[in-house]
Design brief:
It contains 7 helices and 16 strands. It is of the alpha/beta class. Strands 3, 6, 7, 8, 9, 14, 15 and 16 form an 8-stranded mixed β-sheet that branches. The chain is globular, with a radius of gyration of 25 Å.
């Protein structure tokens, strides 16, 4: 995708092309590396020599969708985060067709959780028309995924997420008091499995009973029924939004938190916040390589993918260099014959 195609053009009622819509990509990168067993923040953990943050930024820049990028890093690691950006700037992404020039990259202090980090970054998104939020932990996300999400927002969707089908069998878990074989209740004593019932927004939810975690009354997890995995999706990032919609969703979240409304709790991503506004979440195809680096096993797989990609990039560069040398030699010989 060329530089001229990076923007997203809006159209008036006449159908004539209007101004180019700007896109800010927010990268929450303030998560700890504790589950990876790392003393460094997760975004600074490396795959084949490059940090997750650096690989995420390279994918964003190479996609050609961003006019600006805001990274939310841990406050005590802001200098290191900026140094990762300096490395990319100095290299100029020589292995890529895209250039870092013209893309404003800002590093800000993140918050205590993902939502706070996005809110901090939003303050620096300027007057961007569209905001993409991309987890640095999904550092291997192919550039095409960014383009698909941006294109869907361009087409008029207020909220877009990349998804993959669910392949595992999924069941609902419910906590119940543990009982010995002698104390097992009869069928008549076992309460029925709670049925789904619509919440205030008309969506189906399940209300499950639970026992207090009192050591004198231990509990066990009981599983109920297969969920229809054909209707379930694994959600990835980047998630794309009309900027005004995303800001409105975060404002509602803050209001709900301040008023202690239970519905304001428990969102795990920005799409979850936007959905509470009654906005439809549009799905586009994700990618299996856009895995989230969370546990040590994820690092093993991520390292393998990174090495394959880096090796392919080097081979391509070497072949191109050989071809260029051959072309120069042929031109030189042709000139000498003249």
């Amino acid at each position: 995708m060329g530089r001229e195609e990076r923007g997203i053009r809006s159209r008036g009622h006449s159908g004539r092309s209007a101004r180019v819509l700007s896109i800010c990509v927010i990268v929450p990168a303030a998560g700890s590396g504790s589950r990876l067993g790392s003393a460094d923040p997760k975004a600074l953990v490396r795959l084949n020599g490059k940090s997750l943050l650096a690989r995420s930024l390279e994918a964003i820049i190479s996609s050609g969708v961003a006019s600006s990028i805001v990274v939310a890093a841990p406050e005590e690691f802001l200098t290191r985060a900026r140094s990762e950006i300096d490395i990319i700037s100095e290299s100029g992404l020589k292995d890529s067709e895209a250039s870092i020039s013209g893309i404003r990259i800002t590093v800000v202090a993140g918050g205590d959780d993902r939502i706070e980090s996005v809110q901090s970054a939003l303050k620096y998104a300027g007057d961007a028309d569209i905001v993409l939020v991309h987890d640095a932990a999904r550092a291997l996300t192919p550039s095409d995924v960014f383009r698909r999400v941006a294109a869907a927002v361009r087409a008029g969707a207020e909220a877009v997420v990349p998804v993959l089908p669910m392949t595992d069998t999924v069941r609902r878990a419910q906590s119940r008091p543990a009982v010995s074989l002698d104390d097992r209740p009869t069928a008549a004593d076992v309460p029925p499995v709670p049925l789904p019932r619509p919440d205030s927004n008309g969506r189906q939810s399940v209300v499950e009973s639970g026992a207090d975690s009192d050591p004198e009354f231990p509990t066990v997890g009981v599983l109920h029924g297969d969920l229809d995995r054909s209707r379930l999706r694994r959600v990835q990032t980047p998630q794309g939004f009309a900027a005004a919609t995303l800001r409105r969703a975060h404002e509602k979240y803050d209001h709900d938190q301040a008023t202690s409304w239970p519905g304001g709790l428990g969102a795990t991503d920005d799409a979850g916040l936007v959905e509470r506004l009654g906005v439809d979440i549009v799905a586009v195809d994700g990618d299996e390589e856009a895995l989230k680096i969370t546990y040590p096993l994820d690092l093993v797989l991520g390292e393998h993918i990174a090495k394959q990609r880096d090796g392919t990039a080097r081979d391509t560069k070497q072949r191109d260099g050989t071809a260029d040398d051959s072309m120069r030699d042929a031109t030189s010989e042709s000139g000498q014959r003249r």
